[in-house]
Queue: 3 jobs
Job 1
Amino acid sequence: MLRSCLCRPLERCFGRRGGDGLMWNMDLKPHASGDFSIAVVQANSSLEDQGQVFTSPSATYVGVYDGHGGPEASRFVNKHLFPYLNKFALEQGGLSADVIKKAFNATEEEFLHVVKRSLPARPQIASVGSCCLVGAISNGVLYVANLGDSRAVLGRRASEGRKNPVVAERLSTDHNVSVEEVRREVEALHPDDSHIVVYTRGVWRIKGIIQVSRSIGDVYLKKPEFNRDPIFQQFGNPVPLKRPVMTAEPSIRIRKLLPQDSFLIFASDGLWEQLSDEAAVEIVFKNPRAVSAHLLTFFSYIICLGFTFDCIQRCQQYN
């Protein structure tokens, strides 16, 4: 069984709080392959982001969920995604890309049912969504899956003779139309819509609304029938859709852990808007015992997962 390393409410999750009441951080705690720490900077009075770390003697799960439009989707993912991962992994004899995709799809479908039930009383829930970044380590293998623009970056000890002692390796894909490759991908899926991606308010946005192309939730941009619903039309300006303009299909990266792998940073986009992958990795490398305190300057949800050489060796020997 997986054991939760975090609890709610937030005031009980994190060890130290900032003077403005909007910062939390938790010092190093053990996980199956090393230690982890957490830092949160709350951008406004309603915390829309969620995060969690679950551990067992043989596995570690990490999740960062960056909500938008409200906290409902990120809270839902925080409650349901890991149980689905655990359920499907048990049914199929272990983690795999298929298990992860099934867990994401089940979470998306169940949240859709919540939206349908809640629509008469809360029509705005159809426009609530969450980016979703997940890491899972089992038997020395790392799985990273994501929707949206939260990011996982690995810090790896460099080979001798290199100028920098640590190298940054990005392990996730940013599903944000500010990235030209993502923008072209969205445009290719909608050749009959010349306004599928437009530049407005200083950034590229899908239908002039949202920057990310993948998420949990955002039902009104995935289900055309919601835009035609009179209840939702009373809430805001509906967007005429011929087909979904967003998806909940995760990008997945699978990688064996190596002895030179030192740590992983899982963070929402607030960190990466301010720091390059290399700069964030250098901060963690130089401050291994106080990671949270040194990253709290940035508006983000951050989980840093460190590895020990002995743990990685044991995992490889086990395999």
Note: The two ends are 21 Å apart (CA to CA).
Job 2
Amino acid sequence: MNYDVVVVGGGIGGLTTAIRSAELGKKVAIIEKEELGGECLNRACIPSKTLIDAVKLVYKTSKSNWINGKVEINYDKLGLFKNEIIKNVKDSFTSVLSKYHIDVIKGQASITREGEIEVNGNTLTTDMTVIATGSEPLSLADFPLNGRNVVDPWTAMNLPSLPNDIIIVGGGVAGVELATLFRAMNKDVTIIELMPRLLPVPGIDIEVANEVKKRLEEKGVKIYLNTKSKILKSEDKVIFTAQTPSSTEEVKGDLAVITIGRKPVVNGIDLKAIKVETDQRGYIKVDSRARTSNPKVYAVGDVAGAPLSATKAWRQGVVAGDNIGGKNNEMPKYIPSSIFADLEIGVVGQTAEELKKAGVEAREIKVFMKEIPRAWTLNEPEGFLKVYVDSTGKILGANMVGEGATEVINTLALAMELSLKLSDLYRVQFSHPTISEVITEISQRGIYGEIY
């Protein structure tokens, strides 16, 4: 059967590519070997945020002294609720696929020639091929996954029950979110991070990382930084050796969750045969329009390299679909990131340290959340927003930690993408009382300094 577009991989990037291409009149098929929605919908973004939001409700209740009684999580019922959310989101996507007459084919795709895709013993021909096959966890020599008590993050989040002592290897985004979730469920949690700071991720300010570390430790999470580790045994307990700058310790747990190391999934796709170039790590090289080195092949999502995020995958899919459909579009300059820790984190652009290394002069403006009335009404006055601006007031980057950070950061990403200055934001009125008023405070102080 012949198609205008065949998308290999039905994750978020693949879905948005297929839908946008079909909206623009293309005949489209998606090939997915497992479940539509990929990692994000089935095992990562949607289930993790469902679980984290649930346990945050319990935390908020526990610190509200005007609420009587004890609130506990029924993990079985929470699991059913999580599955219901996944189904609802998936049904919404399925409805859209049906609306645009997109064929969904379940099976393992094989590509050995340009324009031809084998699946389930049949050959599909296509004018354009989109590779959206994602990435998967690496089983590293020092942390071999066994699917039982040494697992990847998404397996851990979907276990029917959790043991008491959990060790998380890696203090990045997944490590911090999982630590938030597990500790809120009264599990004993340890994070082991190789780098000398938590959240050693491009774009995340060191002060934000330290604020998150403080909050996690206050909740009882034990954090090892600047620590080289490896698994010694995993027959019953998981036993690590942890080498800190000052000592070597033995760390034991019932479950180890390995949040480091991923690789692109290109099984069954002969990239050389279809003249698609990759980088040294095997990720497909793409330009700002999601095109590969072969003009007949696009790549979106994790398989197309960093950042490995659903945010990027979603937008890259739209961009690919636009260009395939004849509408010129490019990836945004600024892609915000959101981390759903106990205190939310939102980041976009560069940090002060990164700007300094690049030789860019920037001024930092900071507002504490305790200065925002809405933060008090929500009983969450901790955290702050920092922005970095050049001499003209143009915003170069922003970091926020606190209630609503994952929403506020989108407004700042909008301002940066449109090259707005603080003077432009100062003209905008945000409703009161809302968390977004922190942007008003930032623009006001950036222009006039403290005025009260």
Note: The radius of gyration is 23 Å.
Job 3
Amino acid sequence: MKIARLLPLLALFSCPLLAAEPSGAEQLGKLLANRDKDACTSLTTEAELWRDATAADYGSSGWAAWRKYTQGDTPWRATGDFDGDGLQDVAKVIVDKAGKRWMMGVMFGHADGAPCHRYQISGRDLATLPIAGVLTLPKGKNSLTCHHMGEQGPVTCTVENAAFAARTTDALLTFDDVPSYSSAYLWQPGAEGRNRGKFEQADVALAADYAGMAAHSQADAQNSKAGDGVSAAERKALVQEFEQAWSRLQGTKNYRSIQTAQVSSGQAGDAVTRTITEYADATHTRTTLESGAASVVFLRSGAKVWTRADGTHWTALPDEGAPMPMVSPIGDATITAVRHETRDGRAVKVLQLSGQSETTLVLDVARKLPLQRIDSLKIGPATSVTRTDYDYDVKVEIVPPAVP
């Protein structure tokens, strides 16, 4: 596992179960079948106090990324046959007209003249929680892209539940834009009929979709940007050149990379530094993570992985699966400048990028391999600078531990 593949694993959850969607002050799951004046148009009997959510309620950058990676346009509304009666049902989010609260539920499809049935999934007292989104989980599927990692790529929602696996209806997913909570709901008919039951809740596991992340980043890199300092044709040529160089690194042997990450909140003496050093010989890699006085080492030989912390005994880890696909080093950043320089007697090409972070990529022209990468990210008063240097003029010999 190369260092470029290790970092996302360190920074990202590995299929955790998120907190379930809260129900608020009211009872979770309230079947509303009143034949009142607005029974077929509103989730409540108080339509004068509530309105359907709109795009204006989902204007954050998180929801913009959600739209990009799910190919969905309406996180406030989803359709499907949730109760299995062959009619289209609508899951929707509503907000109070004062703009302080929200709730969501399902408006079930009905034949002309038949009573309208609604099911309120969440309560009204949700002012302190980020607004929810809704998404249909089609029957026959237990996972789909439902979230995002900022601008880095998509995240897959998976429902590991026997009832969901055996279902013959669509199900409903709900979530916020971070994500900090996520839940799945499956309709269970009651004794009084198919549309008189209740929604059963199940947990959702999230995992980064690395293949999707790589595909999105590579597609984004090909698209010219308004702020580019190069033409569209020049951009495509540069993207190909630098992506090929970073891709070659995964098959390169006998090299060393040293990554230093420093985070500072702007106060004197508060900087935190982490160093990751990776060596690769013909068949093995050894990665050392150092933060303060703590040190953790990972050693890999083929699919076998071992680790040890602070000089303790080696411990075998589960075998690695398929290699992680490469994420474009350029992605959706703007190419602001290209320079040709000489460093230590070697010709290099320097690419300046501007996006979520300010990035410098340096390519060893003769070897056609990465020489350096520097990322600088500022969030409020805090600044994070990550620098990776590559060295191919090293002799490395790595011996796997003598453990099973």
Note: The chain has two domains: 18-203, 211-391.
